[in-house]
Amino acid sequence: MPEQNVPITIFHMLEKNLGKEIRVILEPSYGFEGTLVAVTDKPAGIWLSDAEAITLRATIAQPIPSVVSREERSEIFLHLDSIQRIEVLHLPARR
């Protein structure tokens, strides 16, 4: 019998990025940045450590949202139902 390829799920894609810095957008102007430390399937969500709550702002002159404020949050669990977008950050370490 031929081997069947298992389709990649969101959980597989998230697990590949464990230990990396990510930005999670919950609303167009609000989200979190931190290190992805765990992925759970029941409940479906992710755990961030060294997390910061971020506020994003876009203008007509600069339509790509940029971070305008940060607030320390330590560790946080985010349910996948509330997440609009996840970005893997390839930036130098935050200060």
How do the helices and strands follow one another from N- to C-terminus?
HEEEEE
The beta-strand count equals 5
- Shape descriptor reads globular
Largest sheet: 5 strands, antiparallel
The order of strands across the largest sheet is 4-3-2-1-5
Q: What is the alpha-carbon Rg in Å?
A: 15 Å
Low-confidence stretches: none
End-to-end separation in angstroms reads 54 Å
Task: Enumerate how many helices there are, as a single number.
Answer: 1
Helix content: under 10%
Mean pLDDT score: 89
Structural class: mainly beta
- How much of the residues is beta strand, in percent? over 45%
Short descriptors:
mainly beta, single chain, 95 residues, globular, 1 helix
Layout: helices, strands, pairs:
Elements: H1 10-15, E1 21-27, E2 30-41, E3 44-57, E4 66-79, E5 85-88
Antiparallel strand pairs: 1-2, 1-5, 2-3, 3-4
Could you characterize the architecture of this molecule?
There is one protein chain. The chain has one helix at residues 10-15, and strands spanning 21-27, 30-41, 44-57, 66-79, 85-88. The longest helix has 6 residues, at 10-15. By secondary structure, the protein is mostly beta strands. The chain is 6% helix and 54% strand.
